[in-house]
Design a protein that fits this description.
27% of the residues lie in helices and 28% in strands. It is of the alpha/beta class. The chain has a nine-stranded mixed sheet with strand order 4-3-12-11-13-14-15-16-17, with helices on both faces. It has a six-stranded mixed sheet with strand order 8-7-5-6-9-10. Strands 18, 19, 20, 21, 22 and 23 form a six-stranded antiparallel sheet that branches. Helix 9 links the parallel strand 14 and strand 15. The longest helix has 15 residues.
């Protein structure tokens, strides 16, 4: 640990390890960006240029620096420059509206917000008046935020030591070393970037950057994979759905050694298709959240990934502890309970008292001194000890007097081979009290009817859980972090009779 120019102890090891490759292997490719290779020497030069432009010494000390940036070589260089100077970096989503961004920046105690400009100069916004003094933990490297699906996003401070431990685990587990090509599809502010960008650069690998402007273009994504031949691919199910839309008969990509499924449930039909696309890959069903990073993983062959109806959550990562909680007590045997975890990579609380819901962070009883995090995810443990995700505790509703988890309903809909995406919401009803409504995106080349989909659901769900269905071939509404905008979808069902 070293003391940065803020006077606080901040680890510079991540930036130092990355930039050290400029001296050892200056001509090795650090980034592939729109057909151009950025070497480690180039990246170090971009980082120095960013430091000179930003003028770090002139910005307020003892405060995070906000970078509202899209993924690019320039934005990665800006982050490296700030970390190398021992500064905490706040990474809000570039899709956030002005009001939400302003509230989050003040909550983070962040007076300065930088964005990358079209020219050589970065754009600096300095807020009027001093922001509230947020108690940023002294070893914080990165400030990320949750998805905000249930309200204002919460701020998650990631300590330098936690980031160091995670990047070391990721590189070792997935064979990331000098020259390893790793695809980066997720936005720069997502926790997935800790693996596909920072673990890769730390070990001298090569990050294949997906252009954010074309991240939802199926043909672009398919061509990028074939042209750049990644060895490690980590992404949410939406990415793999996009790949399947590029062609009716997707080509095989033999170079991929590891496929990491994360962020959400990947239905069996989708896994069957991508198993054929990546026949030589080991598949990993990775469970984690922003607050704790990865916690559990199940690794299997492409054949198992294609055949199993639901992939289990797997085993805890090294150093990770977990238990299931039912009615404030530990669930010892089989059953369903809320997953509670403690990881070497986790934050120890949210930042900012107004945003913090510290009920999610628990202190272990003596002599157990570790900190725990309530994930809010319901998990089923079978008699033989296998764990499977059921859904969110906050996605449980009562329909016709029966308790239903809407995520389970979504998984049934997504198991239909002609469905691309689906969101189920609970809508108030004057007669039934609550009714379930599903907005479903189907494949453009098929003619799936609502009756056929209802028959599919009726064969797999209890009657109260069968939703009213609305079909579309348009992308479903999403929020700033790319997750479904459930509030907008629910409001649409409530106000538009044609949707119900």
């Amino acid at each position: 640990m070293v003391t940065g120019d803020t006077g606080r102890e901040v680890s510079k090891s991540l930036a130092g390890d990355v930039l050290a490759h400029a001296g050892r292997t200056p001509e090795a490719s650090a980034l592939l960006w729109n057909g151009t290779a950025v070497t480690y020497a180039d990246l170090a030069e971009l980082s120095q240029q960013a430091a000179d432009r930003i003028g770090l010494s002139a910005l307020q000390r003892n405060a995070p620096i906000g970078l509202r940036v899209r993924k690019s070589p320039d934005s990665i260089a800006m982050i490296l420059a700030c970390l190398a100077a021992g500064r905490t970096v706040f990474l809000p989503s570039p899709e956030l509206g002005h009001d939400v961004l302003d509230r989050l920046s003040r909550r983070a105690g962040c007076p300065d917000l930088l964005t990358t400009g079209d020219g050589p100069t970065d754009l600096l916004t300095t807020r009027d008046g001093p922001p509230p003094a947020a108690a940023v933990p002294p070893d914080t490297s990165l400030l990320l935020s949750t998805s905000g699906s249930t309200g204002l996003p919460k701020l998650v401070p990631l300590g330098a030591a936690a980031v160091d431990r995670f990047t070391a685990w990721a590189a070792e587990s997935f064979g990331i070393g000098p020259g390893t090509r790793v695809l980066s599809h997720a936005p720069l502010n997502f926790d997935l970037a800790l693996l596909d960008i920072w673990a890769t650069l730390r070990r001298g690998g090569c990050v294949i950057l997906v252009d954010p402007e074309r991240a939802a273009n199926p043909r672009y994504l398919a061509k990028l994979l074939h042209d750049t031949r990644p060895e490690v691919v980590q992404a949410v199910p939406m990415f793999f759905r996009l790949l399947t839309q590029a062609s009716k008969d997707p080509k095989r990509i033999a170079d991929v050694r590891h496929v990491l499924l994360t962020g959400d449930h990947a239905p069996r039909p989708l896994r069957g298709t991508i198993a054929r696309m990546f026949p030589n890959a080991l598949f990993h069903n990775v469970y984690g959240c922003t607050e704790t990073n990865d916690s559990l993983v199940h690794s299997c062959t492409a054949e198992e990934a294609a055949e199993r109806e639901v992939l289990p959550l797997g085993q805890p990562l090294p150093g990770v502890h977990m238990y299931l909680r039912e009615s404030d007590a530990v669930l010892a045997g089989p059953g369903i309970g809320e997953l509670v975890v403690s990881t070497p990579f986790q934050a120890h609380g949210y930042l900012g008292s107004e945003a913090a819901d510290e009920s999610f962070f628990l202190e272990g009883p003596e002599p157990d001194a570790r900190n725990w995090f309530r994930t809010g995810d319901l998990v089923r443990r079978t008699p033989d000890g296998e764990l499977a995700l059921v859904g969110r505790t906050d996605f449980q509703v009562k329909a016709a007097g029966v308790r239903v988890n809407v995520e389970e309903v979504e998984r049934v809909i997504l198991s239909h081979e002609q469905v691309l995406d689906a969101v189920v919401v609970a809508v108030p009803d004057t007669l039934a009290g609550t009714r379930l409504c599903a907005l479903v995106r189907t494949r453009p080349e098929v003619a799936l009817s609502g009756l056929k989909l209802l028959a599919h659901c009726s064969a797999r769900l209890a009657r109260p859980a069968v939703p009213t269905v609305r079909l579309t071939q348009d992308p479903l509404p999403v929020g700033p972090t790319g997750k479904p905008d459930r509030t907008r979808i629910r409001d649409a069902f409530r106000t538009d009779p044609a949707l119900a």
